[in-house]
Design brief:
Blueprint lengths: L4 E2 L16 E2 L2 H26 L3 H18 L8 E3 L4 H11 L1 H25 L2 H6 L2 H13 L2 H8 L3 H17 L3 H4 L1 H15 L6 H5 L18 H5 L4 H20 L8 H18 L4 E3 L1 H10 L4 H15 L2 H8 L3 H25 L7 H16 L3 E3 L2 E3 L1 H23 L12
Parallel strand pairs: 1-2
Antiparallel strand pairs: 3-4, 5-6
Helix pairs in contact: 1-2, 1-10, 1-15, 1-16, 2-14, 2-16, 3-4, 4-13, 4-14, 6-18, 6-19, 6-20, 7-18, 8-10, 8-18, 10-18, 13-14, 19-20
Amino acid sequence: MPIWTMHGNGRTVAPGEVVAPAERLNWPATIAIGVQHVVAMFGATFLVPALTGFPVSTTLLFSGIGTLLFLLVTKNKLPSYLGSSFAFIAPVTAATASAGMGSALAGIVAVGVLLAAIGFVVQFAGIRWIDKLMPPVVAGSIVALIGFNLAPTAWASYQQSPITATITLAAVIVFSVLFRGFLGRISIFVGVAVGYIVAVIRGEVDYSKVGEADWLGLPTFHIADFASPGTWSVIAMFLPVVLVLIAENVGHVRGVATMTDASVNKSTGRALIADGLATTLAGTFGGSGTTTYGENIGVMAATRVYSTAAYWVAGTVAILLSLSPKVGEVFNSVPPGVLGGVTTALYGLIGIIGIKIWVDNRVDFSRPVNQYTAAVALVIAIAGFTMQWGEFQLGAIVIGTAAALVIYHGGNALARWRKTGADDGGPLVG
């Protein structure tokens, strides 16, 4: 594991330079940046357990532990914070409602184990096979359908307090377009803060559990349940999340490599292994599944500090915060109206990220195979298609993901066999 060397004078970063992963600024500056990373991830990380009913403190604990584990597995060469993944919200919500929290946690564990296994394959065989299995039109469809499938959940919360929800949504949008740099990148967190203040004024916040909670104490743990009959019927709906986590991790590694050193790309397999192990650990004991966070890439881009030392600070601070039940209850007190406002934006943004994958890769939607791959998958997700055989049920995310893969690969095979020109011809050439 490399030892951090001091960058320059330890206080400033010269124009055109970056603080590399193996470098650091002086410790006061490094600690300040680490705390800033906690602020950046906090808004999104606490929202996932708040929306799924998981304990916030437990999720925060395993987020911090997962981050430190990630740094160890990647040999301290890849700066990243592992926060709660929004890709888990839909399957966790469905699994908890039908089979209970223990079964939902088993689904998270299954995703983590599969992701780690794929990471080992990537580490030794490379990543090209993933690109072939999940080309841009398929990857974009899967990411988009997960976001759009959550639209009814956002509306259910929104309508409980439309005024508070509207103000929260407006605050998120205004802060994102009004400010540049760090404040703009944490617009979701700031929007939640504004909405929360409005909810307090309107008498919508219940502080009874906050007053009863201790200042210090261990988080609440729940154990993944693989024994219940309903568990195995819900695990299938979690598996498409693996594809999203792969896309997020690969995108994170490539983003850091672009801004620092191309050799960072060699850590792709280790990143997948690390996130898989962190997700498995979190799911085993009651935390939310994790992923690399774009919010923290934004902080690195703004500060030009890619030092892994800052992430050791961030992970440690997150663990310390999780050891206060009172802090956890404060975040549990966020009312439905605030959650409805922020998730209206957030779930839509997940969908837009999928669309951005299409745009960035110039997917040719004049080709019928690409048209139907995206169209069918999105309608299945938005409508909430389900299929059931006895006790076994497949949700919209699983069906939509399967549809995208089958239509793309099957359609391409047929079109190329018949030479109709309906197949995916690859990115457009400008």
